[in-house]
Design a protein that fits this description.
Oligomer: single chain
Number of strands: 13
Radius of gyration: 22 Å
Order of helices and strands: HHEHEHEHEEEEEEEEHHHEEH
Helix content: 25-40%
CATH architecture of the largest domain: 3-Layer(aba) Sandwich
Number of domains: 3
CATH superfamily of the largest domain: von Willebrand factor, type A domain
CATH topology of the largest domain: Rossmann fold
Length: 349
């Protein structure tokens, strides 16, 4: 009710920006401070808004940040705003991905950007929702990642007393859809061939969906394309597009122009396939696109110092439209029979 909303608790802490004098404490200390600040607070949405000009980058060793992010998992989420030009994209993208937020460069209008982030948080109707995956004993590897609306790697937590069950926390559910990619690595053991088998059960609240597939003999293609096979290939291709764009921009910043040309061409080819205009716009800022469908680009002369914001956007924005299963498309195939296969597959399924 209205009174409850008025009593909603907000907590805040800040560390001033520095250009002179001793360096600030660094990213690891910042998120550690946020974890301590939010511990035990009676708030449903726990979120850190981190504003940095990069002056603390040298104060945080990579392993120290990794350790602190492990400790912060599930405690709060984080949006990162980069100002100025002295920051490195990689640690900011790591913060955003591991803490389930966004990372963006703010040239001006910092107040508007923070206001928009707070407004988005106010629309959250479910702050945290676990996705539970229960697998059969022959499954030896499970991974789950969010592909849209924001790319995030999800960390699985084992369920005590349930050796084949993993819980993947997700955060900040608003109205709308999300795309997730579940990857299972399984051994065939003594499973029968050409028989529908359940490899996992995915549960969100009281909604459950089985994950089924079948092993089949090499040399025999499956009688039909499994439901969702096309959507998986689409998600993987969209991830390759984002990766090619980001790595191409990094190569350009490091003056590895041949590598940058190849990677940006690959990103352009995939962007045309998905109709992802923002990727093409980013490429146009650093290259002439001669034939996007064929992946042919010609690099421009660019100032390497201006590429940081582009690298940040490439690593933080979703890679393509929500995937819809429409039927088979070309993708990785079994070396024996030509059946569609995942990158880690060793047997036909």
């Amino acid at each position: 009710d209205r009174d409850a909303r008025r009593r909603a608790a907000f907590v805040a802490g800040s560390l001033p920006l520095h250009r002179e004098g001793p360096r600030p404490a660094g990213y690891a200390a910042w998120v550690a401070g946020a974890r301590a600040l939010l511990a035990g607070r009676p708030v449903s949405v726990r979120h850190l808004v981190l504003i940095t000009d990069g002056s603390s980058a040298g104060a945080t060793a990579e392993h120290r940040l990794e350790e602190e992010l492990e400790a912060c998992a599930g405690q709060f989420t984080c949006d990162v705003f980069a100002v100025g030009s002295d920051w490195a994209p990689d640690p900011l993208l790591t913060l955003a991905e591991r803490l389930h937020g966004t990372a963006q460069f703010v040239d001006d209008g910092l107040g508007r950007a923070i206001t928009a982030a707070i407004q988005r948080l106010r629309r959250v109707h479910t702050p945290q929702l676990p996705i539970e995956v229960t697998v059969r004993p022959s499954v030896r590897q499970v991974s789950l990642s969010e592909k849209a609306p924001r790319p995030h790697r999800l960390g699985g937590l084992p369920e005590p007393g349930r050796p084949h069950c993993w819980s993947f926390p997700t955060y900040q559910w608003e109205q709308g859809g999300r795309d997730y990619l579940l990857t299972l690595v399984a051994d065939s053991d003594g499973d029968p061939l050409e028989t529908e088998l359940q490899f996992a059960m995915v549960s969100i609240g009281d909604v459950h969906a089985p994950v089924t597939a079948r092993w089949h003999l090499p040399g025999q293609s499956p009688p039909h394309t499994p439901a969702g096979a096309d959507s998986v290939r689409t998600l993987n291709a969209a991830a390759r597009m984002r990766k090619a764009l980001r790595q191409g921009l990094i190569a350009l910043r490091e003056d590895r122009r041949d590598t940058a040309k190849d990677l940006l061409g690959e990103a352009a080819r995939l962007a045309v396939r998905f109709g992802t205009d923002w990727v093409l716009d980013e490429i146009l800022a650093v290259a002439h696109i001669e034939d996007a469908a064929e992946g042919r680009v010609r690099l421009r002369a660019v100032d390497a110092g201006t590429l940081g914001p582009m690298i940040l956007r490439a690593g933080s924005r979703p890679g393509g439209p929500p995937a819809v299963a429409l039927g088979a498309r070309p993708g990785p195939c079994c070396g024996d029979c030509g059946a569609p296969a995942g990158s880690e597959a060793r047997y036909c399924i």
